[in-house]
Amino acid sequence: MFNHFFPADSGDQETWQDAYQDVPRTIEITKDWGLEKLEDFWRSRPNFYDIVVVSRPHNMKYLNYILARENLLDSTKIIYDKFIYLVRKDTLAQAISIVLTKKTQIWHIYQNSTQTKVSKPLPQVYLKNLQKIKIDNDLLTEVKNTKDYFIKQQTSYLQNLIISYKLSPLIVEDEKILENPQEQVKTILDYLN
């Protein structure tokens, strides 16, 4: 299998040594071409690739522009790398969940509610671990700090990432998944096409 990386930005003055710090040496990098020379690149390598993975909406838009004039990737499968941003609107509930998870070391409890309307009892280990947690000012401070600092920092980081890389993610709210899982799964699958 032959892998190739085509950076869209030709203005990036990254050295070969720097480029190969992020990408394994088994992958060929086309440096200094950029989007403006993408059509020339495809013409120089007709029927060379089985699969092309495209990231970011503006790159896909430009590729579609090229292919609308002439399908240079006739037998090539094109995969559009899409992003889904899962958010939880209730940041207090998220902070409590994070703190309890850290303290109990249990990250997920699966309950199959389709079998019965009555929820099943939580696993005994989790209940035991919950009972060990002392509810005091220290715990409440940890929840507040998790909400005010950690969650805000993570949210800001993800939002800046979305803006700086010009991503157009599907935003899915955790609460909506819980309200109507079938509808949300359909929305996600429609987005992924």
Describe the structure.
The protein is of the alpha/beta class and 193 residues long. The protein contains eight helices and six strands; from the N terminus they run E-H-E-H-E-H-E-E-H-H-H-E-H-H. The strands form three sheets. The chain has a two-stranded parallel ribbon. It has a two-stranded parallel sheet with strand order 3-4. Strands 5-6 form a two-stranded parallel sheet. Helix 1 links the parallel strand 1 and strand 2. Helix 4 crosses helix 6 (137-164). The longest helix is centred in the C-terminal third of the chain and has 28 residues, at 137-164. It starts with a strand and ends with a helix. The model is unreliable at 115-120 (pLDDT under 50).
Coarse shape: elongated
Task: Kindly state the number of beta strands.
Answer: 6
The structural class is alpha/beta
Q: Terminal Cα separation, in Å?
A: 26 Å
Instruction: Note the beta-strand portion.
Output: 5-15%
Quaternary structure: single chain
Low-confidence stretches: 115-120
Which keywords apply here?
193 residues; alpha/beta; 2 domains; two-stranded parallel sheet; 50% helix; elongated
Write the topology of this structure:
Blueprint lengths: L2 E3 L10 H7 L4 E3 L8 H7 L6 E5 L1 H13 L7 E5 L2 E4 L3 H14 L19 H9 L4 H28 L5 E4 H6 L1 H12 L1
Parallel strand pairs: 1-2, 3-4, 5-6
Helix pairs in contact: 4-6
